[in-house]
Amino acid sequence: MPLHVSPAPAPALRSVLAALGSPTAVREARTPALRSVQGPLSPELPLPVHVLEQITPSSDAPQTRLAGWRFLIRSGERAVAAADTMLTPDGWAFSRFFEGPYISATERALRQAETVKAPYQPRLLSVPGLYMLTLWLHQDVEADASVGAPAPADLLIPLAPAPPGIVAHRPHRVADLLPMMGLRLTSGLSAASATASAAASAPLLTTG
Fold first, then answer.
1. Ramachandran region of residue 56, left (φ > 0), alpha (ψ -120 to 50) or beta?
2. Tell me: the pLDDT tens digits for 141-176?
3. 69 HSE (CA, 13 A, CB side)
4. Is cis: bond before 161, omega within 30 of 0?
5. pTM for the predicted model, two decimal places
6. Is CB count within 10 Å lower at the N or C end of the chain?
7. Taking the domains of the chain in order of start, what are their residue ranges?
8. How many CB atoms are located within 10 Å of the residue 131 CB?
């Protein structure tokens, strides 16, 4: 089933095109692949990047916020880098070029998503507390891609590298994966709190 990719805000796309057309921006980017490419580059497959801010058992839905729009930068048939944009007081602006394992993982997850029978709107969901990025397949293909939270029946495909214990590129229903992520986040916070408490109560060592 073809994915319903939402168009990015026009100023966001223009800012990426301007950066690609700037020799200085490309030369100074920490992306060797981007600097070494011969031939035209094009930003494609814009995906809104949402950040998961909170998962609580008492809330009806997880709390998310839009962090920006991400474009895959293609050279011929392959993506060689990605470009992030961010919302500033003056509107959408280019943020950075980057490369790494999430580029190929995003392409792989999108190919996986196109084999699913139901139609979906693709987004990215970042979970900073777990150092985790997922392809979020939203069921409401007509929804505004810049807002909203994962619905229980939406699908999440963890991108590689995934956190320990979570298998990359295995689709999960939000209702199944979110509780697991919530437990990991809670246990991580508890461990950090216990470490901080132990450090605060430890006696000070003196010399002399």
1. beta
2. 999 999 999 999 999 999 999 988 899 999 999 999
3. 28
4. yes
5. 0.86
6. C
7. 10-189
8. 10
